[in-house]
Amino acid sequence: MVTQRTEGLYRLFLLCQIVMVAALFWLGVWIMVTFYSPGAELTWRRYSIYCGLIVLGMCLESLTRSGSKNYFWQNELLRQHRLSLRQTIASIGLLVLYLIATKDAFISRIFFFNFVPWLYVALLFSHFYLPPLLARTIFPRMREEKTLLVGSTRKATQLRSWLRRKAEIGLRTVGLICDENIDKTQDGIPVLGTSDQLEKVVRNHGITQVILLEFPLFNEVSWNIIRVCDQLGIRLLIVSDLAEKLRHSVTHFEDDGFRFIGLREEPLENPLNRFLKRAIDLAIAIPVMLIIFPVLVLIVWIIQRLQSRGPLFHVQTRAGMQNRLFKIYKFRTMRTDHEELARQASDNDERVYPIGKWLRKLSLDEVPQFWNVLRGDMSTVGPRPHLIEHNNQFSQLMANYHVRAFVKPGITGLAQVRGFRGEAHNNSDIENRVACDIEYLENWNFSLECGIILRTFAQLIVPPRTAY
Asked: Cβ(131)–Cβ(168) under 8 Å?
């Protein structure tokens, strides 16, 4: 019920915005023709196309927005400013693209540059004043859901801000049923009785909806709540606190008639997403291996002959996706007369020959790993593959360390562009890197992938201080 009310109000709000923008557009056209260009002929067909493109831009922007229906009536200036700006840029941007593509110079410049700021202002005001007005109109007092909470005062406090927001769509909190010996909660919600008095409280206060504040334990009390609600025709909602009980975020999904609970989303399990990511890998790796790699091979070979004779490449065994072992290739940047292969490289590391420090700082030593990308062992973006010894060490520090192996390791990653690279000095450094890696695999999308690649290029030009 709550979701349907919110969804319906959100769609109606967008429809009202579209009508408002169209009306503002034609009002602007009328003012232009009447006051600025008297006697000018108005070409309805052309301006109808312009108006349609602005509306289409708004519709496309709403489709790319995620989660907006959950907070679109909250009067937070910065958030509403961003939404209004996004809508303005999307609608006007589509119109400008059309004008450029068709070389259309018919639209009045005076109208265009006056309409844009008024469009932004109108959208900003609509975000502030339109949702509450629609909610009061659509959900009058007779459509209110008299809501009774069942559970502890602590759980009721956690739901406080949500209850305040949903009051806009007709959820009025009448009171709380709990077994604690108090008259009301700290938020002023009256305690109307104990769990065994549920049926009496529901009848006396005309309750139409009950919210159970925690996942039921399926004991006698829980079964009684469900029975009373069914017998009296009361809507029952249950707050899922499985994440709190499991001490881990959860995701719900249905497949082939069965409902499951998982611990995380994995967008890269979608074959289309994997295909898109692989296409990005090949689009970058092939030019690098054909153009940049041969030149670097020659330069690094000459440098090594002058400063540190030995093999051109440094080959190590690393753990990849699902901890499968593979050989990783790097330009050798350390002298060959040391045996501390498992020690992490540090600033001013005595094992690194002089020019090798610059190869590491500019990440040029990583270029051969694009061969690993072509082979499919690695990706351009992903969690950095660590030494086997380091994997064993870090997994002792973090129980979820190996979750990062759900996706292919990468040459760069979210942790690296956020500055978590180089030597790990303490447990916090490892925790930050793993947190970024898990955030990446749970929230992968095309824009995130491209954003990490662009930020990596920027860091090649201006290396961070942790690059060594």
From this structure: yes
